[in-house]
Amino acid sequence: MFKRIFFLGAAILASYGLGQYVAHSGAPSWWPDRTRDQSVRYYREVMQLVQEGYVGQAPADYEELTRAALEGMVKTLDPHSQFLRADAFQETEDELTNAFGGVGIQVEQRDGQIVIVTPIAGTPAERAGMWRGDRLLQINGAVLKNPTVDKIIKLVRGAPETEVALTVFRPSQNRSLEFKLKRERIQLNSVRNAAHHAGGIGYLAITQFSERTGDEFKAALTGLEATGIRALVIDLRNNPGGLLDAAIAVCNEFFERDELIVYTQGRRPESREDFKADGRHVRRTYPMAILVNGDTASAAEIVEGAMKDTRRAFIVGEKTFGKGSVQSVMPLRQGEGLRLTTARYYTPSGITIHERGITPQVELEISAEDEAKLRVQQTRLDLTADAEFQERWGFARIEDWQLNAAEEVLAGVLVAQKK
User: Fold this and answer.
1) Is 219 exposed, middle or buried (0-12, 13-18, 19+ CB in 10 A)?
2) Interatomic CA distance for residues 257 and 150, integer angstroms
3) Which of 124, 133, 80 is nearest to 102 (CA)?
């Protein structure tokens, strides 16, 4: 009797203790979740009804229904979370690395045809002798009908080491040529157009934040400094963001050791994570300006916010997009993945950018038409002759008033520093 009562009493005490633990700390992973289990059973019941009774044209097998349900479930959370099927997950990985399997051609649509803008240096297309201006006629022997740039990109890209045959027409020689190419891993630069402008002002643009952005930025910055720049403009206009680590790497070139660049805060109070500079760089004290617009978002806003917060740079342009959330990309089975919002990020002073954006110190808006023209100008620096540029695009080059304003601000600072 005593032994039985002892165990009963122990069970009551254990149940009470476990109940108190759950109440204060949350249920452990092995604790049954009745609401979850009921929801899963309900989903299975509905899925079975659909699979057994649906007579429409849409696929209704268990695998397709499950994926459709996962897509819908995650989509309802927020605009940035997404269940990624295998092809979408691979595209996401390519975006984050700024690399893909292909032959190394940049193309555009011109007069209903797909024209090669440039073969990227060191790629299969460049080594095989493809030229700028070649017009794409066939891919793997299939004539292109109603081609679009997106459609051509999907056909030309593929797994490295696979082959693709491209037939082009070369106007300068009035003949057709066929190129049999083996795809390779192609990497695009995210830091572009580095230049030494008048008055000792350096300029560079960051188009997105990918795995190699930090190294590219450091190399471009070192190159500009070797020319004797006295100030710097960083162009983040139309930069949609990318990797948090890449944004931190850019800021790290200017922040002192252990100085806070940004911090993220997840669902639980203890999930805060601080990101600080390592201080492994030469000390830089020259004035800076950062160009932004309404399409500057996410990781680009991290750089902008950190530099503005610490008064390291003047912000010039338009109010930014306001995406202050962090998405974690998690691989799943069968090559699929999950992109899930897991935290918000905050500037060093504790300001959240999410759905607010950042207002520049020097606000200067331009029309959507001029913004589109400037975007073309920035991506087509290969057309150096004004007449050639106007003939190709149908408009003459326009002044970049936002860049001019940034350089005027920096020129004023440089003058003030001499006094």
Assistant:
1) middle
2) 44
3) 124
- Contact (Cβ atoms closer than 8 angstroms) between residue 232 and residue 201: yes
Active-site option among 94, 134, 235, 309: 309
Residues with Cβ within 8 Å of 166's Cβ and at least 6 positions away in sequence, in order, are: 103, 130, 136, 138, 139, 156, 178, 179, 181
SS3 (DSSP) at 363: strand
Instruction: Give the span between the Cα atoms of 119 and 284, in whole angstroms.
Output: 36
Q: Which of 190, 210, 298, 325 is catalytic?
A: 298
Helix (H, G, I), strand (E, B) or coil at 114: strand
Task: Give which of 142, 148, 153, 146 is closest to 106, Cα–Cα.
Answer: 153
At position 151, the amino acid (one-letter code) is K
Whole-number Å distance between alpha carbons of 349 and 347:
5
DSSP states of 7-19 as a string?
HHHHHHHHHHHHH
What is the per-residue pLDDT across 32-49, written as a single tens digit (0 to 9) for each?
688 888 999 999 999 999
Contact between 206 and 240 under an 8 Å Cβ cutoff? The reply is no
Full DSSP string of 255-319: SPTT-EEEEEE-SSGGG-EEEE----S----S-EEEEE-TT--THHHHHHHHHHHTTS-EEEES-
Does residue 197 contact residue 166 with C-beta atoms inside 8 Å? no
Q: Of these residues, 81, 235, 323, 400, which one is catalytic?
A: 323
The verdict on whether 29 is a catalytic residue reads no
Quick check: is 78 catalytic? no
To the query of whether residue 190 is one of the catalytic residues in this protein, the response is: no
> How many residues comprise the chain?
419
The structure's pTM equals 0.78
CA separation for the pair 286, 230 (Å, rounded): 6
Buried b / exposed e over 387-414, threshold 16 CB at 10 Å, is: eebeeeeeeeeeebebbebbbebbbebb
- Per-residue pLDDT tens digits for 68-96: 999 999 999 998 899 999 988 988 888 77
Nearest to 143 by CA among 132, 135, 133: 135
